[in-house]
Design goal:
By secondary structure, the chain is of the alpha+beta class. The protein has helices spanning 6-18, 63-76, 113-117, 130-139, 145-151, 170-182, 186-195, 253-264, 278-284, 291-301, 360-375; strands spanning 23-30, 33-41, 56-58, 97-100, 103-106, 204-205, 220-223, 226-229, 249-252, 306-308, 313-315, 330-333, 339-343, 348-353, 356-357. A 7-stranded antiparallel beta sheet has the order 2-1-14-13-12-11-10, with helices on both faces. Strands 3-9-6 form a 3-stranded antiparallel beta sheet. Strands 8-7-15 form a 3-stranded mixed beta sheet, with no helix packed on it. The model has no long low-confidence stretch (mean pLDDT 96).
């Protein structure tokens, strides 16, 4: 990878403001050095307050990158195996039903950890599923991560695990497994093993009571009226005690840039703190999708050219999208349009944040363009 054109990147980011994105922030690291940062736009309803370096955002599915880092730490330590049965850690998952083209029946094969990591578990992303509603009615705000995750399987799986790719609550289940294996709450585990080691001081779980929203950028949504302000809530944080492994974190660009740099540099921070081994990161990048899953991630999620490893997309076929970026770029994004992209060969990482829900432009155009501008030739 040659040095990218900073002027072109800045020009592109500024053009997004002209297209209606209220604010943008982008940081690029290479070999533990921040080589680029640019912010523009405003973060309040009246569009008078400029974005600031420590601006907070609802990270939504960018949370998954931390959840995958955490679970792979436990794999690395031999405390669980990717092929372990989920029911070994969550007994509620020992007996599963599936309802697919062959009809409703008991599942003969177990759901395994790698099925969860690769979004091939058979679960869905329905926040109104009967089990969740039952737990919330019975336990209210006292319901824990484990209470709600155990309720997911009160509805049958949509397919036999390992046979399809379907974006789902799978990584919330992984968070519950981390709690069982570590003996800590999911938030405590992240704090002890990722946030504090990497000096991530502005990362924490969103709460349904809207506490901790100081410095949170105004959240917007894209609809028929354009890009308009919306309520400042994370609809995946079901209770005060629930910590969503799939979508629960509030963070900032600076914190995520530290994580991206460590993962791009073989799992080691600029200060020499190791959160993962290089070989573990290579395992994260290994495509786990079946043939049907490869077609589904391309058609259903618009990720043509990508596979999907341990909870992160992996750029496998640049030629399919006319890209000059190398294979092996990995990462993920969030429902408000943020993105983290990393490359272990060039030891380069990109973190981009915005705060607009339902923004198809982010996934179809912005993220691929940033990939080309930073990692392309």
């Amino acid at each position: 990878m040659s040095r990218f054109d900073e002027n072109k990147l800045t020009e592109y980011l500024d053009s997004l403001i002209d297209k209606g994105i209220p604010s943008v922030d982008c940081i690029v690291y290479k070999d533990h050095k921040q080589i680029y940062r640019h912010m523009n736009g405003t973060v309040d309803r009246d569009k008078k307050i400029n974005v600031r370096p420590d601006q907070r955002y609802l990270m939504f599915s960018m949370t998954k990158v931390q959840t995958m880092t955490a679970v792979m730490q436990l794999v690395e330590q031999g405390k669980l195996l990717l092929d372990d049965e989920v029911g070994k850690y969550l007994p509620a998952y020992k007996k599963l039903m599936v309802d697919d083209e062959e009809g409703l029946r008991e599942l003969n094969e177990p759901m395994r950890i790698w099925h969860l990591l690769s979004m091939q578990s058979g679960l869905d992303y329905n926040a109104e599923r009967p089990g969740i509603l039952r737990v919330l009615k019975e336990k209210g705000q006292s319901a824990t991560t484990r209470d709600i995750v155990d309720s997911f399987i009160e509805s049958p799986l949509e397919f036999v695990p390992g046979t399809h790719f379907h974006y789902s609550f799978s990584h919330d289940v992984v968070a519950a497994i981390i709690e069982v294996v570590s003996g800590m709450s999911f938030g405590e585990y992240l704090k002890n093993n990722i946030w504090e080691p990497l000096n991530m001081k502005d990362t924490f779980f969103a709460k349904p009571d809207n506490s901790g929203l100081e410095r949170l950028a105004q959240q917007y949504t894209s609809n028929d009226d354009g890009i308009v302000p919306m309520e400042q809530t994370c609809n995946y944080q079901f209770t005060i005690n629930y910590e969503s492994g799939g979508a629960g974190l509030i963070s900032c660009t600076e914190d995520y840039a530290k994580l991206g740099d460590a993962l791009a540099c073989g799992g080691e921070s600029a200060e020499g703190i190791r959160i993962l081994k290089p070989e573990t990161i290579e395992l994260i990048k290994k495509n786990l999708l079946c043939d049907a899953g490869m077609e589904e991630i391309a058609t259903n999620m618009g990720r043509k050219g990508y596979g999907y490893g341990c909870g992160m997309q992996v750029f496998m076929y640049p030629e399919l999208v006319g890209s000059t970026a190398p294979t092996g770029i990995f990462g993920w994004d969030g429902a408000a349009g943020s993105s983290i992209q990393m490359d272990t060969v060039s030891r380069t990482s990109l973190v981009y944040t915005q705060h607009v829900r339902n923004c198809g432009m982010a996934y179809e155009f912005i993220h691929p363009t940033l990939r080309e501008l930073v990692f392309g030739e």
